[in-house]
Amino acid sequence: MEAQMLRDKVAVITGASYGMGQSMAELFAEEGAAVVLTARHQEKLDAVVEGIRAKGGRAIGVVADVCSTEDTKKVFETALKEFGDVDILINNAGIGEQKMIDETDDDWMMFVMNTNLGGPMRYIREALKIFLPKNDGVIINVSSVNGTRPFCGATYTSTKGALNTLTKNVAMRLIDTNIRCNAVAPGATVTPAHLVNKAGEQPGGAEMLKYSGHYVYFPGPECDPMDQAYACLYLASKMGRHVKGQVLQVCNGAFL
Fold it and tell me: Which of 156, 211, 215, 217 is catalytic?
């Protein structure tokens, strides 16, 4: 049996009930980590947890909203109670959208910002309460190619650009520690959310693509969720032990 790269580690993964988050959870469990999965919907979360356990992995699910400070605290309290520690945080939860700036009202703007940027800030803040005392830990933010090439909705793209900046800011804060903070920036990846977007069914529809389509190139094939999970594994394992403050773009060359 090959050595597991995350043996005896504990990982918290947000937005893990489907898509990229699910693939990350399954891969990390295969590599020996105990995984603490969060999502807003119990049924889907339970199905992923049961699937991991059926393969011999260690997993628990915590229904939580990343917009809630109390829910965030509950996730880490549950992780410590169940597994005794937390070593890895993956901020994967997010909302995709295609609303143009002239269609973006305050309520929508604040909702997306609170989820896509506020969520990671809450989770990082809570994780550091565990990481700093032991001077060890890994933080991975799931950004997007939209962080540098903003072709989706105005709020979504802004939050991903901000998440890239947050990644570097946190890495700077932690530069003299053994705690690493990096980001993975997925390109087009075949997930339920991506398929809804391609069909023009995300909030805002496909109107924005009439403008941004001039700047977007899809050579194919699109990425698989596991491609993003492998990038996270690289950053979370000893392979990425000296990587700090980087945004690793995984897009099959579509957004160079």
Answer: 156
